[in-house]
Structure formats: structure tokens, C-alpha cells
Protein 1
Amino acid sequence: MDLKLPKLGEGADSGVVVTVFVKEGDTVAKDQTIIELENEKAVAAIPATDAGVVAKVYVKAGDKISAGQRILSLAGGGAPAAAPAPAAKPAAKPAAKRLAPQPEPEVEEVVEEAAEEESAEAVAAPVAPPSLRRWARELGINLGKIRGSGPGGRIEIGDVRSYIARLQSTAAKAKTAPATSSPAPAKPAAEQIDFSKWGPVTKKPITTLRGVISRRMTENWNSIPHVTQFDDADFTKLNELRKKYAAAYEAKGCKLTLTPLVLKAVAATLKKHPIFNSSLDEVANELVLKEYVHLGIAVDTEQGLIVPVIRDVDKKSVPDLAKELEVLAQKARDRKVSGDELKGGTFTISNQGAIGGAHFTPIVNKPEVAILGLGRGVMKPVVRDGKVEARMMTPLGLSYDHRVIDGGSAARFIVDLVAALQDFSEELITL
């Protein structure tokens, strides 16, 4: 029997093979890891779905494979694989008319075109409960064109509703667009330049991770109107507290840095300014205010920037955050962080303090609406109570989505954040 790459969920339908752990003649047990697959910013272990002896391996390190593609074949395996589920029938055009009553021909074509674009990503039979399948049949909706947000790509009722809303929105835009509107100008083709004409060069291929970073940063910059609010925070007290308790934390097996303290200060400030802990739902035209605080931490690795997420920061102690941060950062550097550990963030922090530099303008990590950048703290002369004192001043840069957040809100947020950092309670650090 053939072992194929399964559909791993949204955004995980393909990847690059990092490691192949088996060869022809090896005996494989069910659920044993057979390959590691690099997808987006994570490296996932792909297990065997059956047991047997490897008859042939079809992939090697560096190959790009997609869901449904053969990885290897087994001889003497267990029960034969179940026959694939029949593909869902394409939705009939009358069903599209139920979503948008009696659309004009050009509107119907737009709806069909949008559905076809989404169906290009559907490579396996949809997973959905029977009641949802029955409801979809009654509406004439092809579940094969919908990405599931549940475990293993399972389609939930909210996924279907979002799909219907997207079709209705597309049809409405097409119907109201001026008939004489001209198409957007095509993006100019990239020009390839032979730089070797002017001197020696070295060429390096773009890695999968760098490609993902490039695509995401371009999308974020082009789709979000960015504004950055700058300030400086006095980290003198914060650094003194860190030094005071560093040895005690070392004795408990974890390293106390300034980052866990910044996490707590940011979480407290987000509670006071919940709009910074939100996302813009462009389909439903709604602002989603999140009652949880999951902070993404930008980790500088040899392969590129990776942003794992620490969940429920507002509910965790500084010692717990210090331990979790250390483990998660190391997993990111070793490319062992899972896809789930990169998702669900509500606000991101990029701390360049250990490297150097001052103010910078971080790019908002969509679908979040704000990100905080910290530069390196430097001792500077500061006037306090009419006297000049040497204080450790740390530059802050708060970038935000101007569609959601106004300048006044950003100024109030950073003022409260600076106060939370400068007046940090020692009780939060004690073990």
C-alpha cells in the first residue's frame, strides 16, 4: 500500500521534505515518524498510517510535496486502505442564485470564479458532521470548496457561514461596480539582472521560511495602513529588579530576562486598552475584541524570524513566563516549534535589545492590529525633579493598523505602557 501526505489543515497542504527517516527494507510501525516536513514556519513530523516493510521511498530531502502525494509504499502492511470518499458534486448554478437572488450573468460568473479559486486548495474529501453535510446539500453548497477551521481541517458551521458571506460580498461588489471600470494595472514583470557583469557574485537559493516571511511581510505592509508611535521608557528599576532576582531564578532552573517583565506590563496595558487586542473581520465588517491575551514573541533564528505564541500571559506568573519563554525560544531556533504554537496571537512583541539599535518601525502581524518594537536600553542623562541623573532609557516603537486605531488611542496606550514598565511591582517577580 502507498502512504500519502495527508491534508494537515488550513495552510498546511504542502511543504518541503526536511528529513527522511526510513529507507527501503526498513520495518515501519504505525504512527512512527517517517519524514519531517517544513511548512510555513514550522517543521512537522509526519507519521506512518500503517505498519509494514518499506518497499519504495518516493521522496528525498529538499523535495516539495503536496497533500495526496505518495511518500513511500509498504509491503506486508495491515488492512488495506479504505477507498477514497467520493468527491463532492459541484454546486449547481441555481444554488448560487439562492445566495444572491437572480444575479446578473456577470455577477454569477464572479461568484463561480471565487468558488473555483477556493476549490483549487481543496485536495481531499471534506470532513464535516452529517447534519452540516445535509444543510449544505439543501443550500446547494459544495463543502469541497470550503477550508475547515476545526481539528484536522474539519468543517464547522462558522466556516460555511463565512463562505456564504464571502460569495455574497463578492457578488454585491461586482453588481455595484461601474460597468466602465477598467481592470487594475498588472504588476510589472520582475527584471532579472546579471550582476556578475560588474564583479564576482555568490548565489544562494531562497529558503522556504524566507519565502514565507517575504510573502507575509509584503501582504501585511500592502493591506494595512501603518502608523508608528515612538517613546522611551525608563528601564532602570526594571533592570535592577532583574539583577536582584536573577540568581534566585537560576537556582530554580530558569533564566530571568527583561522580556517576561515586558510581557506582564504589555498584558496589563492590553487589558486597559482592549482595541489593541482585537482583529478586523473584513468579511463580516466587524471588530473582534478578544478576551484572552496571547502574545507572539519574535525570535531571531539562523533561518529567519519566527514568532511563537505564549498563551494567557495575563494569567501566568513571571517565573512561569520565564520558563515557557526559554523553552519556546529554543524550540523556534531548533525549528521544532509546531504550527499550533505559531497561531492565535493577539499582539506581537519584537525585542531587539540584545542585539542593538534604537527606534524602528515593526510591521503589524496580520490579523493582529498592533505590534511593539523594543530597542536596546542605553544609559542617558535624564532630568528628574530638576536634577540630571543617569537612567537606562529603552526606545519603544508601537506600530498599529490605522483602520482600527486612531493616533489618540495609540498615544494613551504607550503612555500607560511606559508607566507599567517604570512602576513595575516587585511582588510580580518574587518566587
Protein 2
Amino acid sequence: MKTPAIAITASLVFISFLCGKAQAREVSYIQAENRITLKGFSRSPYFDEQLLKLEIFNGIKIEINAPAASIFDNNKKVMLIFYALPNMNTIAETIGRQKIPGLDWHYEIQQIGAQVRFLRNLVSDKNIVIAYLESPEESWQWWRMKHPGDDFIFKQVVDSVANIFRNFSTEIVLDGHSGGGSFVFGFINSVNKIPNNIKRLAFLDSDYDYSDSLHHGGKISRWLKAEPDHYLCSIAYDDRHVIINGKDIGTINGGTFYRSKLMENRLSEDFHFQNESDSLFIKYTALNGRIKFFLKRNPDHLMWHTLLVEKNGFIESILSGTKYENEGYQLWGWDAYSEYIQP
């Protein structure tokens, strides 16, 4: 296996990969009355958030967004969310903006920045940090096709960004929308055992690359059994028949509905699932809610790919199975985060 030389250079941050192992110097910080200012991070004009932008390995972009120093509490754990971008979206588009005339529609369809701010306001016991991950091809699937055998890079990226917060008690979430799920499965491919510091795996209509033959189900099952604070959330819709301009563009065996069912079927060998259905969703739940599959019904054969995210899908992907689930929001309800959308 080849080991590339990778360098991340930013204020007070230098990360290099030697012999396949990540080495890093953590970001220093200033503490005042348990409030944390991250040195080397810039201050955003939006909500005083703390930002660090990095670029590695021939163009992979990472933007880390941490809470404002006034609310970053050293007494709380850091929840570090890795959000792998969907195909053909930039980090700025994924973060989102308020709608104005002439604005590119990509800025309106995810609003992950606002959904993160909603989470920060709701979840009182965590400092929520998000790392947006953008491939130079604007598709993690294309990146993996271009770099076969390099899935180990994904674990190095996760380990190195997590190392920035090594002075804090940190738990990791791997999440993504659409082709972003390919990053998550690339990470899973790169390890024999999913590390215990990964506390949540989430798929926002993004599990296209799930494969029984690659032992994804077995790895996920063993990881779920390893610790009582490991969570899995998968949100998808029935994309088997999607009619656009009179043409069926759906896929029976390749879409997220099919892949979600494959994953659920594999996990049902090890866990007892309860099936709960209503007019909107088919739901599969196990381990007292630690495992949740949401499959959106689609009787009119419409395209719900991005609406699953926009309608509080990201929030649900982070909170499913916890005490905060459905607190101030509902999956597929009106957006709960409108007041947090940046100009």
C-alpha cells in the first residue's frame, strides 16, 4: 500500500502522514472561565463561530466550524461531526444562506450551517463542532474511483482533524449526504474494526455504497455491540421509481431504498427490529432506538433526495435515539432552524 506525503498548513496547525500514521500538533487555546478561544481559528461574522480552513492531498478541502468562544465550554465534551459533502456541492453551498433573488439554488437545499446552530442551541451537554469535507472532484465516489486503494486516507483525515481537539474529551460522528456516504464507507473499508471513538454513523440518503460482500454489515454490527453509546441512523426514500418529465429514472437495486433494506436485513441477523409504519415513513428500530432506519414512502414517485436533508434530516441524523429526538423539530416537518440561517 502506498503512503502519500500529505501536509496541512494553517495557523498553528501542521499535520503530516508518515508511514501511514498521522502525527499532529494540537491547536492551542485560551481559556477564560471555562470559555474556549481556539488559537489559529478565525472569527466568523456569523454567530461569532470559530473557523479553520485546510487543504490537503491534491485539493481535499476541510472547513472546521466550532462554536463561538462565548459558548465553547471546557466542561463539556466535543461532538466532532464529519460531514462529507454531496455530489456537485461546495462547502459554502452546503452551509447555506438565506434566499435572495439570483442566488444559486444550491445554497438553499441543505442549510447544514443553520441545522448545526439549532443543535448547538438544543444540545446542552456538548460542544458541537462540524468538519465539512469536500473532494476536488466534488464527488467522493469519483475521488475513490480516481484513487483506488486509497481509502486509508479517510481514516487519516478523521484521525488528524480529531487530533486538533486532543485536549478535549471528543466523540466522533461520521455523516454525509448523497455521494458523501462514499467517504463514510471508504473509512469503514480502511479499518478492520470501527474505532470506539466513532459514536455515530449516519447516512442521509447516502448509503449507495453499502455492500455485504465488503463486510460493511458485519463491521457495523460488531461496532454497535461494542459500546452502549454507539448509534446508527439511516434516512432514505423510496427511489425505486422516480418520474421526472414522464421518464422513470429510479433504480431497483442501486438506490438508497434498496441499500438501506440490505443493511437492515444484515443487521436483523444480530438485532431484533421493530417495524413501525405510518403514512410518511416505514421505520425499523433496534437497541432501544440506537439503530434507526427511516424509509420515506413515495406513492407519487417524486424526487425527495435533497428534501430529506432540508426537512430537518440532518438534525434527525444526529439526534435519533437520544433524549433530544423530536425536541423542537420533526423529521419531514417545517424547518426548525430558519432563525439560524446566515445572510
Protein 3
Amino acid sequence: MSQRSKSNKKFMVLSAIGIFMVVDHHTFTALNLFGDFIPYNSFFMPMFVFISGYFNKVDSKTKLLPYTWKKIKSLLFPYIGISALVLLLQMLMNLFKTGALEPYPSGYFLYMLERVVTVGSPFAIVTPMWFVITLFALLLVYALLKKLLARIWNSYVMFAIFCALHLLVIYLARTVAPESLYWFLLPLKVLFFLPFLELGIIYRDRLEAKHTSLAGGWKFAILCALLLLNMVRTLYLPTAYDVAFDSIDELAGFTSPILVTPLVSSLVGILFWLTIADLIQKPLAESKFLNYMSCNTFWIMGLHITFYNLFNCVLMLICKVIAPLPYFSVETFQETEWYFWEINPNVKLAYVVIGILGPLGVKWIWDVCCGGVKKLAHNRKKTENT
């Protein structure tokens, strides 16, 4: 199957790095690339928003209805499709794990819909998909704001306003009871991410040329300075991991006593990996695998935990049919989708590989099937016209 080749190699590499971090983070860090200095969840979801902002072309001429329909097709339809596929696979895996197909309780599908519009993911095994709902709402809100305020829009002023709203969200998340914020999670997450969307646009329009033109030595100096900055920051926080923040889907995990920590952490992480992507883009520019990975981050995000569980099903089958595997707990795996066989650290790497290659394999099959259908339709139309 032919696959579109991204012309912007720096952002191709950056998005591939970002989705690798998502997969690696969800194995509790098999490789942990610079994670001891710049933890993944101190920046990687804001970095995806930054990437979306970089490619965002919304302006006063944008027609909101066609734009909304475009985002529904590119975000919500795949979200529904992948969620439905995962739900089916989860039912089959539960049948394998327990030997019975347990019916869902009354009201479960209404509960899933409630989770979609609050937390963002309908059930645990597709937890990372919360980002899709947030991104959809974020892009629509931003497009509406850009349309209404086009005549007075100044990116730097709006970035400052968005940063203030971001800090307000952090304050609310730290001081208000979680149950009180539950039905406001989606709009609050939109406010949390707005500065990073605008930052992507500022970088594209005002900063990229300067950043790219820096000599290699200066870029290396930026990397060292950012690592040093994070090292100093950790000295002034109660724990080193306070620079990070967990569970953005529920606006939880902001443990730092300093309100600006998530914003600064995100800016540090984005600039660090953006600089690395700029440095390594040339040797990786022609990598078909990285290009395919970058083009299909959606599939990896939605399916990698499912493939962790499919791998565990294989291990469970070995335990039942051949012999028990050391330290593999069948009972624990039957109870949770987040179980990993931790016989040694190298096994985590297997989960990372499966979490990336599995979804890409599914996407490749989908591409082949779609390509075959299109070719068949084309040939049929050609035959009818002759």
C-alpha cells in the first residue's frame, strides 16, 4: 500500500517520538528516554497539542460548519470505530480469560457515553483516547475564538491570556473537590491546552526560522541548558517527580506546590524534544517506518493497550497449556487491563514493540482492504464506461 510521505520531516520525527513516549509510558517506562531528567508526562500531551497548533490554518476566512464536519470525520469517526473494535476485542479477551461472556450491567452504555463527554474515554482499555475528544473540542473552540476575534487577534497577547486560563485550571484542579469538577472536565481541559495550541502557531510563524538556523553547537547548548534547568527545578520541589503531572484526563496529579510547574515543564519538554527532532531529522528523513508511524499515531494511541492484553492472553495460554510462567499472575491479569509480566525489565520492551507494531499492522490491513475496495470500484466503473 502506498502511504503519504510527510514533507515536514522535523515534525514527522517529533510526532513519532511523541507516540513512542505514550506507549513507553504505559509500560511504566521500558526505555524512558531522558525520562529521569524530563519525565514523559511532564510534557508529551501538551506536545501533541503543540504539533496540532503548528499545522492549524484556521483564520477569519474559515467556514465553521465545513471545518467542524472535517474534524468530525478525521477525529470522531475514527474514535468511534476504534472504540467499537476495542470493545469487541475486549469482550473476546474477557471470554478467554474467564471462560464466560458476562453481560454488561443495565445502564453501562449510558455510563460509557457519560465518560466520553467527561473523562474522554468510554472504558479503561482505551483510556488514552481521552485526548481525541479533548483535541476535537479544543480545535472547535479555538476556531470559534479565531473567527470572532480575528480583527483584534494578536498571538502573543492571546498566548498570555491562554496561559492565565491554564493557571486557573491548575488552581481549580488543586483546590476544588474532584467530584465538583467532574461535569466540567472537558471545558477545563480545553482551557488547559489552549496555550500550547497557540504556541504551535507562534513557533511556525515567528520562531521556527530562527530555531532551525541555529548552529548545531547552539542547539546542543539549548539541550544542556534545559536539562540543567529541570535539575535545578527538582531541587526546589518536595519530590523530583513533582515536575510531572499524571491523569490529565481527570485533571489530577498536579502535586507541585508551585502553580506554574505544569506550564514550565511542558515548555521545557516541548523545546527539548523539538530541538532533538531538528538535530536528527536529516538521517531519519527517509525512514518509511517512522513516516508510517507518524501518520498513524491515532491508531497506536487507541490500540496499544489492547495489544498489551492480547500479548498477555498468549502468555496466559502458555501457562494453561504448556507450563506456568515464572511471576506471571493469571489471577491479576483476569482482574485488570493494566497488568504486565515483570519477570525482568527486558520484557517491558516486548510490550513496547507489540504496542507499536500491533496497531500499525491493523492499520496496514485496513489500508490494504480499503485500497482493494477502491481498486475494485474503479475497475467496475471503468468497465461500465467502456
Protein 4
Amino acid sequence: MYSKKKKQARVKEKESASGNNFVRGRFKDDISGITADFTSSLDIDKRLADFDIAGSIAHLYALRKAGVVSEKEKKEIEKSLLKIKEDIKTGAFKFDKRYEDIHMNIEKKLTMLAPVSGAKLHTARSRNDQVSIDFRLYVKNEIKKVAGALIALRFELIDIAKNHIDAIFPGYTHLQHAQPVSLAHHISAYYEMFTRDFERLINCYAAADVLTLGSGALAGVDFEIDRQLEAKMLGFAKISRNSMDGVSDRDFALEFNFALSMIMMHLSRFCEELIIWNSEEFGFIELKDEFTTGSSIMPQKKNPDVLELIRGKTGGVISNLLSLFIMMKALPLTYNRDMQEDKKPVMESTDTVYNSILIFTEIIKTVKFNAKNMRSKLDDDFIYATDIATYLVKKGIPFRKSHEIVGRIVNYAKENKKTLSKLKVEEYKKICGGIENDIFEVLNPLASVGLKKSYGGTALNRVKSIINDYEEEIERNKKSLERLER
């Protein structure tokens, strides 16, 4: 009987040592299975494995410098960590949900490979600053990926703009014909949006580029850890100045998700325009078959489904930003378990945005623009009404008065079922005596866009000049990204 109980005790002890909660001491009982399942984040944060190992190796070197581990122990731990990294890469590593996250899975495996020295690695480190540094390394890496994808997209937009400077079509406000513009000018508007997105990402990188390792649980650590050494090894530009803020700060994640939401919103707007332009009513573009689908019942259909999906996925990305805000809005200092939920919305949004940029870039560089059909829409010469107002201003009539006169001209033409170009000069003169035969020179696309010669306007020489600026700008952006890669 005694031996049976002793055996059972040994089994229980063994299970406790390798079970749900291998950080023991305070607790007499293991957490329940349902608690283990509920609190586990392994399915999400195992993507942080490489970053966790990189952070651990940097911390290991700091421990060696502080005299916490010997040179022999340092080599044994580093070798074991690199073995774990390789096993994860090849799929040989067995993740165990009993250890709730990637950090505990790696640490448990480390203590199996190096039982004595491995147990020293967590000295002068909390899971709070460990999680923070892993997440920051992940965000920095993803920012570089998304920024690189944006450069590729912007490069394609420049190419499209260069090839369509002379293509003139209606610009819209309220989806109504407004004024003629160069197609290159229209495409350049999206280049500007994605450029701001790129700049936001670079700013996000700076926000994430702060070493928080060494903050401990919240108060700092009890050893002379060389944080400069850790920062240099991990490629961080700055070191956090307040340990409490270090472990609880998620501003960098919020800023990154905001930048991702803006990118997705801009993609969605562009997709919406392409969807409209692809319709029978507009016929401005043609999409390649590989980016469209058919109908289950209507054989003639060619649906812009990929563009619609990008537009549809935008809501999820914006929702992820909101979920982060809501999670953080009422958290007291410092770390709270709520913050375990910070990674999923960032990772989901990053994947969605990155993949959306990639496929949208492929779509946009294969779009066929029907410049002839676009220009035909300018036959509705009421679109030149503002140009007539400018014509009258140049005749010495104040703009507000000119605006009123042109409104009367438009009403007259519509009541008489004529276009502006079909009115006779005598009809014009009945409304405004200062109008001469040269009024008809205004009613054409080239004259209209040529008048918009302010910096940033659609005059063709301005558009060409700005595109040249874009080409220089994107080269500077490439160099900025290369500096982050170093």
C-alpha cells in the first residue's frame, strides 16, 4: 500500500513538473484543462518564435557580461536555442499547449536540452518584457515587408501615370462630371495616398524601435544588465526610459494598425473606382480574366471579385484597430492579461494588408485603360462650364458674377436641348454681351487641362514635372527602407 502511494506521488510530481504550469511554487494545484485551453495563446504567438530566440540570445550575452552565467553556460544555452530555432524551422519542434505560449514552450525545451544552465536564462527577465520585445521585433519586421510592398505598388502607379499623361477624361465630384483631368493626374492621387502610408509606416517603425528588454515585470531588474548591448544585438535604436511604460506600452501596435487601416482604406477607395470604371456604364478599363470570376447562373458575367474582396476585407482591418483601442482604453499600469489579445489583431491585419497590396499591384499593372472611351465622355461639354467662368473673369467680370452668368447659360442650353458648343454666339451674347467667338476655343479637353497650371494641377506640363519628382522620391524611399534592413 505504501509503495503504491509513493509511486502515485512520484507520478503526480512528474506530471506537475511537465504539465500545464511549469512555473510553480505559489500554486498547489495545476490549472484545469479548460483554463489551459482558454488562456493559451500558442496558436497565435508561435509566429514570434524566431524573435523570441533572438531576444533570448541577446539577453544571454547580457547575462554573461553581468557574470550571471559562465562562458561555458553561455555557449551551451546559445547552442540549445539555435537547435530549437532549427527544429521549429524544419517542423521537428513539438509545440505543447500545456505551456500556454511560445515563450514557455521554448523555455521548457531549453531546460530539457540544458537543464542546469538553461534554467538561468530567465534571470533578470520577466515574461512581460520578453513578450514586449518579441512583439516589437515582429512589428518592425512586418513594417519593412509592408513598406516594401508599397514601394512596388507606387512604382507601378508611376509607370501607369507616365504612359497616360495625354489621356484626358472626366474628373468627378459627387460622381458627377466636374472638370476634365489627365488620367495620370488621377492615378497620381493614389500615389500620394500610398506615399503618405509609406511615411506613416516609417514613423511606426521609429515608435516600435525601442528596446524594452530589461524592464523586468515592471520595476526594472536586480542585475547590471547591459541594455545597450542588447539593443545593439537586436537592432534597436533606442532604449526605454521607464520600465513601467516599457512593459505596458502598446502605442506602437496601435500606430501600426492605424497605418494598416489607412492603407486598406486607400486600397478600398481605389478598388471602388476600378469596379465602377469596369462597369458597362463606364467602360473605362478592362480587367484581366485571372483577377475576375464568372457567375453561377449568368454566363456573360465577368465579375471584379478580387477588387470586391479587398474592399470587403477593409472592414476587418479597421475593426482590428478598434479592438486594440478598446482593449487598451481602461488598463491600469502595468501589464494586464488583456494584453495577450494584442497580437492577433495586428497579425491578422498585417497578413490581410500585405496580401492585398501584392495582389492589387498585380491587378493594376495589368489593367487595360480605354483612353478612347474615357475621352468620349468629354463630349458632354457642360463639363467646361467652369472654364467659361474663367473666360469671363479674364474679360474683367468678377468670379461670383461669372459663376451666375454661366449658370444661366447652362440653364438656357438645357431648356433648349442644346450643348454649350451648339449654342450660337448670338445666344451667348443675349446672356452676356462680352462673350465673343473665342468662347468656343474653351470647349475642348486640352484647353481645359492646360488652364489648370497651378502647382499640383492637372496641366500636362505640371503632371510631367510631378511624375519626375515621384521617380526621385521613390528612390529616396528605397534607400530609407534599405537603411532599416541593415
